[in-house]
Amino acid sequence: MLTLAASAFAAGTTLLAKALGTGVLGPEMHALQISHGRFLFAFIAITMMIAVMRPRMTRPDFRLHAVRSAFGWGGVTLMFAAAAFIPLSDATAISFLNPVFGMMLAIPLLGEKVGPIRWSAALIALAGAAILTRPGGSAIEFGAMLALGSALLLGAELIAIKRLSGREGPYQILLVNNGIGLLIATLAMLPVWQMPTAQQWAALAGVGVLMAMAQACFVNAMARADASFVAPFFYAALVFAAIYDALVFHVLPDTVSVAGALIILTGAGLLAWREGRRPRAPGSAGQ
User: Fold this and answer.
1) Among residues 55, 105, 96, 45, which one has the least CA distance to residue 261?
2) How far apart are CA 158 and CA 136, in angstroms?
3) What's CA 145's distance to the chain center, in Å?
4) 86, 147 contact by CB (below 8 A)
5) pLDDT of 128-184, one tens digit each?
6) Is residue 223 classed exposed, middle or buried when 0-12, 13-18 and 19+ CB atoms within 10 A define those classes?
7) What residues does each domain of the chain span?
8) What pLDDT, in 10s, does the model give residues 199-216?
9) How many CA atoms does the CB half-sphere of 27 hold within 13 Å?
10) Cβ-count burial of 283 within 10 angstroms (0-12 exposed, 13-18 middle, 19+ buried)?
11) Which of 23, 142, 148, 158 has the fewest Cβ atoms within 10 Å of its own Cβ atom?
């Protein structure tokens, strides 16, 4: 239930970002400003949660946090930009490639060895993404490439998360990540700043709060069950994205969208299954 809630909240952030980026709530807003709103209000929400819960805090690894936050900010910004060009279901499906890119980057960066099953899962997922780029298109193809760039950066972020895992508490990681991300987003947003309307302020707050709630739900879900059990439920975000798109923008997934999404989910699901069967290193329980 926590993971399903996280997927619904995460899809909601993309919905609001699309509304802001396409001019539904006022003048079209730049993806850099939308990303800033996401980090600003998420930081406020997480700070309030920590003030109430008072988790144990340790000395953070700011250098590693900065790397993770830079990749996360870049991935989120590209995802919000992609949502303005392509259906939410397409953008969400392509975002599921981030563990595939994370696996690939783990080979040179973490020295991990990848077997035939994991490579097969990666190739299947990438084939689905190739379908969603719709070769020969213009704006749609451009949006898909933005989403692919987002998945690549979020995959790189996973490498930093793996290094942080077990060293620091989950709420501390969320707080530091969103704090540094807010600093990066603020500096990047200044050249494109425009005064939001009242509706846009509300939507920006919604993006940040929903993202904070999604992160909190997912962190708590991961603390209560194995990642191999939890991860597949997050794919429900694709369903929520399609529903939101249909209700708000009257956009229904076409045959290409459904085919590409199913192929990506097949590859991502196979990868999640294989990760769940990998033996854990000694002392890695609970990470």
Assistant:
1) 96
2) 32
3) 16
4) yes
5) 888 888 776 555 578 889 999 999 999 898 888 888 877 888 888 889 999 999 999
6) exposed
7) 2-277
8) 999 999 999 999 989 988
9) 8
10) exposed
11) 23
